[in-house]
Amino acid sequence: MAKVNLDTASRLDITCRKGDTFTLVIDFGEAISTTASNYAMLFAETDTATASYTFTASSFSVTSGDATNSQLTISVTGDTANWTAGNYVYDLEEDNGGVVKTRLYGTFVINEDVS
Question: What is the pTM of this model?
Answer without folding.
Answer: 0.83
